[in-house]
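Methods — Computational structure assignment.
A single polypeptide chain was analysed. Its primary sequence is given first, followed by the predicted tertiary structure written as structure tokens.
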Amino acid sequence: MGVETTDREFVERLERDFPEVEFRWDRPKFSYQMQNGKKVVFLGGPQPNFSLLALHELGHALCGHESYDTHIARLKIESEAWERANTVFLNYQKQAQDNPDLARILPEWDEDFVQEKLDTYREWLHQKSKCKKCGLTMYQTKDGKYHCPRCESFL
């Protein structure tokens, strides 16, 4: 099973409109990386919402995301990437009103899907920040270490 024709055509449109970003089809999952000073979006295999996932990774590239120090910063950049993806989508949606070729390949924006994806990071962050001793929410310092305000206050 290959990538849908409209998804492939949509990515080709992204490649034309964002020449500063390289799109590669050689990874099992979607991701974004800086490689040798070049913004690279890796496209995953065929799946529902393929084009939205490509837009999300493009969002990372357009935001200039490179790394994060803390887990809360990761959630922040994931949210920013979806916001930027939505900005690109809304621009395309306006253009599609006068462009039937773009209208044909433009995906539907699925806010429930976006929130489900963000929920995976929210849940992950909640689990990472839960103190194993007392269950209180810990905070993470810039060095990546978690601290429990309750347990550490009694040391």
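Note: Residues 5-154 form one domain.
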